[in-house]
Amino acid sequence: MALPGSLNRYLLLMAQEHLEFRLPEIKSLLSVFGGQFTNSQETYGKSPFWILNIPSEDIARNLMKRTVCAKSIFELWGHGKSPEELYTSLKSYPVEKMVPYLHSDSTYKIKIHTFNKTLTQEEKVKRIDALEFLPFQGKVNLKKPQHVFSILEDYGLDPNSIPKDPHNIYFGRWIADGQRELIESYSVKKRHFIGNTSMDAGLSFIMTNHAKVKENDLVFDPFVGTGGLLIASAHFGAYVCGTDIDYNTVHGLGKASRKNQKWRGPDENIRANLRQYGLEKFYLDVLVSDASKPSWRKGTYFDAIITDPPYGIRESTRRSGSQKDIPKGIEKCPESHVPVSLSYHLSDMFFDLLNFAAETLVLGGRLVYWLPVYTPEYTEEMVPWHPCLRLISNCEQKLSSHTARRLITMEKVKEFENRDKYSHLLSDHFLPYQGHNSFREKYFSGVTKRIAKEEKCSHE
Questions:
Q1: Where a domain ends, among 136, 158, 178?
Q2: What is the chain's percent helix, strand, coil content, to nearest 5?
Q3: What is each CA distance from 420 to 37, 145, 306, 395, in whole angstroms?
Q4: Same domain, 116 and 200
Q5: CA-CA distance, 161 to 166, in Å (whole number)?
Q6: Domain for residue 439, yes or no?
Q7: How does DSSP assign 251-285, residue by residue?
């Protein structure tokens, strides 16, 4: 259904991966460029075909310059459940909107896109010929047409039960493609400097889009690792900085994560990663620092905080302490000024992160982070809460049959006051999430059970 006013209808062709992440990405990007996602937008659950109402073609193009969840966008001219319905819809589309793209001096071609079915060349030609009632006056040019039109047919989501006729048929003018090629061009496999937990390129860009990162923003990652999230933010023109407790990672020292390479090279570091992609001018710096004891002066600095905290699986959860933090009975080192590495409970880590975001984000700035969960015990009440932050989205990525991580996006809606620092202790959300302090043990108990089950099956 079209919205009242001057909004135009567009068809968005979505990628069929990270399904839960798609809607929050599109909503966030529309709001960045002046559009708005309303309840009357037509989305079809897991379907790749979405109909959106967008104020202008410029906004549609800007959306596609950012999204990695969408493949293409089309100005929708017609839509039906059958060919007859499609033709009726096309005949009712305003001719004055068609004419600029169909005049005699123009060149064009018509493409066929089918989802969950392959058509023969003969079937494709038949569908194109059936559109001869449209007032095309230009010449066909298959190599470099000025305008591209598409017939898109949806045969459902079940590859084992493909219907004879499509569920929906769309016709529209192609506007632009999304940024799917970024997933390959920024692939971790090609990255100069990587670690054991370097973030997948596609997810890095999704996180950046959820955070509404834009040109000249200041973006911070308190668990920076090898800087994958900084790279994605810098690609969109943001200035980036971060901290990490691991001295070797920050300085690019120690053992390499690559196979057949023992030690990291002299130029394997975060700055070199940004240099690799021509983004070094956006790199501010990365510091060795403890996320539980931020060294920043009071103030609001960051437009976005994007991070992937350690879960204690491949990277340990640590914070710095002092000799007096060591339990009695354990021998102390003589150099009392040397920091001691202490365990850092997941619940404490996340509430420290939320407090830090509430203190340092600008109003309207976003915090985007991963929350590991043990799925048999997970409920929405376990998502950490803060009075200065509003939950925007919560998307699941499965890690195993019994564990997952959830991409949490929050927006700062209130200025931080000192009394807000411990308000989470009064929240109903605090106690439930403390159960996830044992996420590591639960993760490996599940792995152990699975291995035992597989061994039992192999011996039967």
A1: 178
A2: 35, 25, 40
A3: 31, 59, 21, 26
A4: no
A5: 12
A6: no
A7: HT-SB-SSTT--B--TT-SHHHHHHHTT-GGGEEE
CB atoms within 10 A of CB 91: 11
Tell me the mean pLDDT in the region 16-44. Answer: 84
- Measured between alpha carbons, how far is residue 327 from residues 293, 307, 318, 393, 406 in Å? 20, 31, 16, 40, 34
Read off the DSSP letter of residue 17: S
> How many separate domains does the chain show?
2
Q: Indicate which CATH number applies to the domain containing 399.
A: 3.40.50.150
Which one, of 202, 199, 189, lies nearest residue 70 by Cα?
Answer: 202
Range of the domain at 245: 182-314+340-434
Please state, for a pLDDT cut of 90, what percent of the chain lies above it: 63
User: pTM surpassing 0.85?
Assistant: yes
Asked if 166 and 38 sit in the same domain, the reply is yes
φ, ψ at 65 (rounded to 5°): -75, -10
Lowest mean pLDDT among 28-32, 93-97, 158-162, 309-313: 309-313
**Domain assignment present for 441:** no
In this structure, the answer to whether residues 290 and 306 fall within a common structural domain is yes
Residues 192/268, Cβ–Cβ less than 8 Å: yes
Higher pLDDT, 410 or 452: 410
Q: Read off the pLDDT band of 344 (50, 70, 90).
A: low
For the cut 60, the answer to whether the pLDDT of residue 270 exceeds it is yes
CATH of the domain at 33: 3.30.2130.30
